[in-house]
Amino acid sequence: MGLGDELLTEEERAILETVSQFRKKELENVALEIDETPEPEKISDLFKSAASIGMCSCLSCASGGASAGLSELTLGLREIAYASPGFAVLILSHNVALLALEHTSKDADLGAFGRGEKRAAFAASILKGEGTLEAGIVPGGWNADVIVFHVFDDAFVYPVEKTDARLKLEKIENPLGFRASLPARAWLSVAQHVEGGTEISSEFSETLQCALLLGLASVASGITRRALDVSHSYAKERYQGGDYIIGHEQMRIYLAEMALGIQISDAAIQHAKDVWMKRGQALSACKAAKCAASRFAMSSALNGVQIHGGYGYMRDYGTERLMREAKYCQSYPKAEQEELLDIVGIFPERVASQRAAGRDLCKGGF
Amino acid sequence: MEIPSGEIRLAGERILSEFPMLEHFNRSNSKAFENIAKTVKACADYGRRHILPVALRLDEKLKDEHDYFPWELVRAALPYRLLSLIIPKIVGGQGGLAVLFSLAMEELCAYCPGVGNIIGAHALGIAPLLVCGSITYWEKILREIVCEEKKGNPVLMAAAVTEPSAGTDVEEPNFLKTARLTMSAKKVKGGYVLNGRKCFISNGSVAKYIVLCSATDKSRPLETWTTFIIQKGMDGFTVPRVEIKMGQRVCPAAELSFEDCFVPEENVLSFEGTGMQPGTLLLLAASRAPVGAIATGIARGAYEWFLRWANKSRNGVKPASRQRVQMALAEMKTRIQVSRWTYLNAAMSFDSSMGRAMSSTLLRSLGLIPDSIRTSEIYLNLFNSRLGKRVSGSILSLYAREDEITRALAFASLAKAVGGDTAMHVTSLALEQLGSDICEERLWIEKAFRDAKLTQIYEGTNQLNMLTLFAAEIGKNLRVEMGKLKERHV
Ligand SMILES: Cc1cc2nc3c(=O)[nH]c(=O)nc-3n(C[C@H](O)[C@H](O)[C@H](O)COP(=O)(O)OP(=O)(O)OC[C@H]3O[C@@H](n4cnc5c(N)ncnc54)[C@H](O)[C@@H]3O)c2cc1C
């Protein structure tokens, strides 16, 4: 339980507690290592452990995982990101892809994905070239069993097995962030536009986007929380300028800005969740939450490094990692400015439309 | 992904014509300007030919082999005379001052700030010998650097101020008073015995000579802060570790350990107790503008790569045709210009005070004395004697007036902070604009983003630089006490 968690429900507290146990027992001690040298086997083991607490089927109804849905996604990812934002994004990518798979392949048995025996990755395609879909960064793409391509606002999703000849994957070596997600660059050749694609409604396309953005906002919130906690502890221990540095106003202002960031991010995430549950159409709110939370994650991580002085720049202290991860949170799946432009673009619609409240997330059709 | 090889042309040569302030400088001192232009071009050539083809590969290699040092790359810098840029002409150097050196730093760091920092940290080691007027060591060390440079053997220097428990504290006189130091230099017969550790020292593991500050009495650190010259291989001096850093990996940041390390009396620069006032403050007045330039170079490098990306077609559309990208490019350009203006302003301010001393007739006339005399024991001992130190200290304080050098320190601190923030902002903005596009430009911009953060930390954190600006320029409670160079009674 941390800052801003006062209003959590019993159920949400239970989710947080479960994931927190996983984080402390299994993730914290390997977080630096999986960022530095992400071994696929190690990540697979962690993935299975995460599956055992329901984190690999958060949004799923059919696969038998825990289905507290959005709360699990947001609180769980936040908690995992507190230790390893990269691993949290791997889990997120899997969950969004699984949601798409469930929606599009209704009869298939997808239980293995929920149990962590198989992995899916979501390829948010930014580019649609001549007969090719391209996704720059696919978290979890390297080593996933299935990759689900989707161009937002398009009417199709394209699930492909990793053995599919139309799929080309390239491992992203030493990316700035999301290393523990084993990211890949991916191309899918689609000779004809709809080949291999499954038609979806625009509402479901929006659902996928909302899930991804809300998840990213939660990862960002985890980064901000980590930045605050480690910086606060350090500031209480480091003596400089005739005082512990927490005694210097500038340092306290940085810490307070992080605390502010947590509260605003959480409020934005909660708002997006509420809108989603009540009105069904939450894209603008999810984009806003993602932009706000990732901006705060970025500034908090930068100030966190700054508070640590030279030590913050060194790998062993773990703060520089937050800065790299936050930057990827900010610019994935697309440029922050594009998200902002989208918010403007969809804003009038959002005001105008009054959709039915409380649609079932699992059906995905808002 | 294929690592891009040197086909990109950075805008190095352009900055001279792009910047009206330099044109003005050209009119008033065309010889100095010519020298500057030559140096910038040399740096651009070195950058294109030698740094660009290897920078990314080296950065990647150093991620795993963090104590590897690219001696070949340093050797390749020798024909360009990059190790003697700020060494006075009377001992064979290029005689550059802060303006020349800053522009050189910007140029090198547009290619790779890690390589730039090797040259920068080397100059940081040289600077105390200059600003303290240590004529003896000009002859002993600086001459050696120049001679070896000509022979193709790099002799590197470093400056060691930071201690594990004191970073900000050892860069500001008021904070030094309450610093909890771990390192000490105890006076013994014929010299001092050093014990303790220094940390994060750039070039610390590869330098032959290290200029090091330590208190001779930890209960009175400000009054007894003293500058020593340490030579690699001295008994009791070891380098236990090289740090694993986020960026600027090519330049090693080392921990230095001293266990009963004896340093002879003659290795004290200026007098005991002048290490902070004016020693470290003079050093910072000299070095912070170049650090602002390092940061500007990082921003410029990122900008150039980003511009290249923006002009490449993606599915028939050039990102540069989008207004958001145009605005981002314009913002980057603006910040880079502002940042360059602040560092040049600071460097000019330094050059017009300390530079006057360095190029004074008195100091230059030493160059007329035949080499055989200037390298003789008598000459070297004379300038390292109490009288010799007093004379050179007097010359410096005669030309470099306290109020001018204090103002130069304020401007330099401003330039360093502005530069650091610019580097961070520009690299960050470029990455934001790229979104998830994985492309070769991205590799350089991501590296620049990692490299940039350091410029907000070293040479005093940006917060300290702001506090120094306040104290020296606004609050008026910090002065660089030049008079203390004439003698100090501890
Ligand atoms: C890669 C690298 C290379 C370096 N190279 C060299 C080198 O060659 N030689 C050398 O001597 N040093 C070097 N340094 C050290 C560098 O100069 C210090 O890291 C820097 O001065 C900050 O000191 P610190 O790391 O101890 O941070 P601290 O001084 O511990 O600062 C921690 C935080 O507290 C803040 N703070 C401290 N005091 C105050 C105050 N009074 N008021 C408000 N805020 C305050 C700081 O701004 C910072 O945010 C290097 C550092 C790095 C990381």
Task: Give a nutshell description of this structure.
In chain A, about 55% of the residues lie in helices and about 10% in strands. With about 375 residues, chain A is of the alpha+beta class.
Largest sheet of chain A: 4 strands, mixed
The strand count of chain A comes to 10
Please state the CA-atom Rg of chain B, rounded to the nearest Å: 22 Å
Measured as a percent range, the helix fraction of chain A is 40-55%
Description:
The complex is a heterodimer of chains A (366) and B (490). Chain A is an alpha+beta fold. Helix content of chain A is 54%, strand content 12%. In chain A, β9 and β10 form a beta hairpin. In chain A, α4 (70-83) runs antiparallel to α5, α5 packs antiparallel against α7 and α7 (202-237) packs antiparallel against α8. Chain A starts with 9 loop residues before the first helix and ends in a 14-residue tail after the last helix. In chain B, 56% of the residues lie in helices and 11% in strands. With 490 residues, chain B is α+β, with helices and mostly antiparallel strands. Chain B is globular and about 75 Å long. Chain B has helices at residues 14-18, 20-28, 30-51, 55-64, 71-77, 98-111, 113-131, 135-151, 173-176, 221-224, 275-310, 323-358, 361-365, 371-374, 377-384, 386-399, 402-434, 440-454, 462-474; strands spanning 157-160, 184-188, 191-202, 209-215, 225-231, 237-242, 253-264. Chain B starts with 13 loop residues before the first helix and ends in a 16-residue tail after the last helix. In chain B, α12 packs across α16. Mean pLDDT of chain B is 92; it is low at 1-12. In chain B, strands 2-3-7-6 form a 4-stranded antiparallel sheet, with helices on one face. The longest helix of chain B has 36 residues, at 275-310. Chain B has 19 helices and 7 strands. The chains are: A alpha+beta (366), B alpha+beta (490). The structure holds flavin-adenine dinucleotide (FAD).
